[in-house]
């Protein structure tokens, strides 16, 4: 392990001292890593609500944990984030007695009250008790914000977590679509580099597998419709890919200045070498045909890391399994990595866990660091029909031993949000 505390640009190096994760494959790093390297899928038919007449009736839901049933998506969002955060904080050895020594950066979905709750409010008689419209108005008029606030997903999750972990300052909630998890990490990196803090807790969480979100993505023709074979539906980079698979989960990282982590004798699991972002104003759901925004994000991350493109040993791809995204990601990687791409493995965790939307960047950063530490590349499963227009080494179907020291992790979202991270060995 290096004892160098600052990077080539004179900034504090960013150490990762804690990791936590929850996905459809299980709760915790051990269960998830075992399933990912075994090539096992967590995608299944949805059992939590009726799917009659829906074009897509499956997802990567978090059902098989001890979280228990929840009355709302907000509650599950908070529970998954708490579980991932607790695992990361415990591993880091920070935050004893709810006193985490830094801020919270939380990536969450851009939603507040879910459709079933809004319908219940609409249907409630004017004088009814419970979650009726009249009571909601009374809460707002009397400034009884805790009651009204408890119904809202976006801000309340961060506040609950800030209390749970005792983070410092106001928690920051961020929503940059499917890049949100990576954005939360970037915010933590930048805060430490500025000297605002010595540590940051960065979490991405999402429980958007709800009826309304499923319908909206379906109307965009973004989802796979392979209802007869859910586990085989997510097929990143395959010629017969037909859309992404919605999923839920949470990923958490404890970031520290390298110097502070060394001083307290912490185990350093890896480092965040660089972050890059680039907005795309072309279309709400599509990327610019020339790929300049995605290329810009990847190139900016590599330049921020101060490494050469040929030093990238593995790419944890965004790899959603949609026809356009996979093609654009390949073209961007080809532009930035050039001929080095021919010798660089590129695989997609989403083939097994699905697309966890706001949480995906954080979850995949966790997996990227586990890849570096364990010396095994998770596969891209369901890869039986290669696309000749995307000639990548996708680590097809079976995990592969490989010692890599530097990983590029990509996260691209609707609305033109693009964030890439470069992660490295300590």
TrEMBL record:
Pfam families listed in its UniProt record: ketoacyl-synt (PF00109), Ketoacyl-synt_C (PF02801)
Ketosynthase family 3 (KS3) domain mapped to chain residues: 11-425
Involved pathway(s): Lipid metabolism; fatty acid biosynthesis
Enzyme class at the top of the EC tree: transferase
Enzyme Commission number(s) of this protein: 2.3.1.41
Keyword terms: Acyltransferase, Transferase
GO cellular component: cytosol
InterPro entries in the cross-refs: Beta-ketoacyl_synthase, Ketoacyl_synth_AS, Ketoacyl_synth_C, Ketoacyl_synth_N, PKS_Beta-ketoAc_synthase_dom, Thiolase-like
Family designation: Belongs to the thiolase-like superfamily. Beta-ketoacyl-ACP synthases family.
Biological-process GO terms, alphabetical: fatty acid biosynthetic process
Keyword flag Zinc: no
Annotated source species: Hyphomicrobium nitrativorans NL23
Molecular function, one GO term: 3-oxoacyl-[acyl-carrier-protein] synthase activity
Name of the protein in its database record: 3-oxoacyl-ACP synthase
Domain of life: Bacteria
């Amino acid at each position: 392990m290096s004892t160098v505390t600052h990077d080539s640009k004179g900034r504090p190096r960013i150490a990762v001292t804690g990791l936590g994760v929850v996905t459809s494959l299980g709760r915790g790093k051990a269960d998830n890593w075992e399933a990912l390297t075994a090539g096992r899928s967590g995608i299944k038919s949805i059992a939590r609500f009726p799917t009659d007449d829906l074009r897509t009736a499956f997802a990567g839901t978090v059902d098989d944990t001890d979280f228990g049933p929840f009355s709302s998506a907000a509650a599950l969002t908070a529970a998954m984030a708490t579980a991932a955060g607790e695992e990361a904080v415990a591993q880091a050895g920070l935050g004893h007695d709810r006193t985490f020594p830094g801020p919270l950066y939380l990536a969450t979905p851009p939603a507040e009250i879910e459709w079933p709750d809004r319908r219940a409010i609409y249907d409630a008689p004017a004088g009814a008790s419970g979650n009726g419209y009249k009571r909601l108005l009374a809460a707002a008029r009397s400034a009884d914000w805790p009651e009204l606030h408890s119904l809202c997903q976006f801000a309340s999750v961060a506040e609950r977590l800030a209390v749970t972990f005792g983070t410092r300052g106001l928690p920051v909630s961020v929503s940059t679509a499917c890049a949100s998890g990576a954005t939360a990490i970037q915010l933590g990196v930048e805060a430490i580099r500025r000297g605002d803090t010595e540590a940051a807790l960065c979490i991405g969480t999402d429980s958007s597998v709800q009826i309304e979100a499923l319908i909206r993505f379906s109307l965009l023709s973004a989802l796979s419709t392979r209802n007869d074979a859910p586990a085989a539906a997510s097929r990143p980079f395959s010629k017969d890919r037909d859309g992404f698979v919605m999923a839920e989960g949470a990923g958490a990282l404890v970031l520290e200045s390298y110097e502070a982590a060394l001083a307290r004798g912490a185990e350093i699991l890896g480092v965040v070498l660089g972050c890059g972002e680039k907005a795309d104003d072309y279309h709400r759901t599509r990327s610019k045909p020339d790929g300049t925004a995605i290329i810009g994000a990847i190139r900016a991350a590599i330049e921020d890391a101060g490494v050469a493109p040929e030093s990238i040993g593995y790419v944890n791809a965004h790899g959603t399994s949609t026809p356009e995204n996979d093609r654009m990601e390949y073209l961007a990687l080809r532009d930035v990595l050039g001929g080095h791409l021919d010798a660089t493995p590129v695989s997609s965790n989403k083939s097994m866990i699905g697309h966890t939307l706001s949480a995906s960047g954080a979850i995949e950063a966790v997996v990227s660091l586990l890849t570096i530490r364990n010396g095994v590349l998770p596969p891209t499963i369901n890869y039986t029909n290669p696309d000749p227009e995307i000639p990548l080494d996708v680590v097809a179907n079976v995990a592969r031993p490989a010692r890599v020291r530097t990983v590029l992790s990509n996260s691209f979202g609707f609305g033109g949000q693009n964030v890439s991270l470069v992660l490295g060995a300590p």
